[in-house]
UniProtKB/TrEMBL annotation:
This is FMN dependent NADH:quinone oxidoreductase. Quinone reductase that provides resistance to thiol-specific stress caused by electrophilic quinones. Also exhibits azoreductase activity. Catalyzes the reductive cleavage of the azo bond in aromatic azo compounds to the corresponding amines. The keyword DNA-binding does not apply. FMN binds at S24, S30, V31, S32. It catalyses: 2 a quinone + NADH + H(+) = 2 a 1,4-benzosemiquinone + NAD(+); N,N-dimethyl-1,4-phenylenediamine + anthranilate + 2 NAD(+) = 2-(4-dimethylaminophenyl)diazenylbenzoate + 2 NADH + 2 H(+). One of its GO terms (molecular function) is oxidoreductase activity, acting on NAD(P)H, quinone or similar compound as acceptor. It holds the Pfam family Flavodoxin_2.
Length: 215
């Protein structure tokens, strides 16, 4: 893909920032949403500044021909219409660039991530901005960040050969440079709900316990 000249975010000073992503299309009946909220509350209590993004309200648009044409056009050559086509993507990228930590809700739909989360990946995976190709292969540009995947599944065991959700997210985050990824899985809740929720809560509490206090 064509290299982009969009400037990268400068290092942040002061309180750390956490990006909180909700992706479940369900509300009151969601398993992942309360778990993500638990992580967010713990990080807020530790003094982190939170950026909340619900990927379902409003739903992220899918990338289309206009988006792709704009993305393949060098930044300095884009028309006003092309810059507008990438405006939401630019905002989503900026949120990730500014974040020290990411908490990503990952409900499993048909063994895979839900469409809103896949759309988010499509918007933030941009050559020259969040990754680049070098003579040694691809290099992720979103480095020095930590991510928590809050997975919820009805019957899919986390990390199993039919788990195309957490394995895909781990791969994509690593491709973008985010290699410190922890999984908090409330998996197989149709069969062992209490145990699954307890495991996920324990993993969330452990991951948030060492969050840096505000400077």
């Amino acid at each position: 893909m064509t290299a982009d000249t969009t400037p990268h975010s400068a290092p942040q000073t002061g309180p750390q920032t956490a990006l909180i992503l909700q992706a479940s299309v369900r509300r009151d009946a969601s398993v992942s949403r309360p778990l993500v909220a638990r992580a967010a509350e713990a990080l807020r209590d530790r003094g982190l500044r939170l950026t909340d993004r619900d990927l379902t309200a409003p739903a992220l648009p899918y990338v289309d021909d206009a988006w792709t044409a704009a993305n393949f056009t060098p930044a300095e050559q884009r028309t006003d219409a092309q810059r507008q086509a990438l405006a939401l993507s630019d905002a989503l990228v900026a949120e990730v660039q500014a974040a020290d930590r990411l908490v990503i809700g990952l409900p499993v739909y048909n063994f895979a991530p839900p469409a809103p989360l896949k759309s988010w990946i499509d918007h933030v995976a941009r050559a020259g901005v969040t990754f680049r190709y070098t003579e040694n292969g691809a290099e992720g540009l979103l480095k020095n960040k930590r991510a928590l995947l809050v997975m919820a599944s009805g019957g899919t065991p986390a990390g199993s050969e039919i788990d195309y959700a957490s394995t895909y997210l781990r791969h994509m985050l690593g491709f973008l440079g985010i290699t410190d990824v922890t999984l908090a899985a409330a998996d197989r809740v149709l069969f062992e709900q209490d145990e699954a929720l307890a495991r996920a809560r324990d993993a969330i509490d452990a991951w948030t316990a060492d969050a840096a206090l505000a400077a």
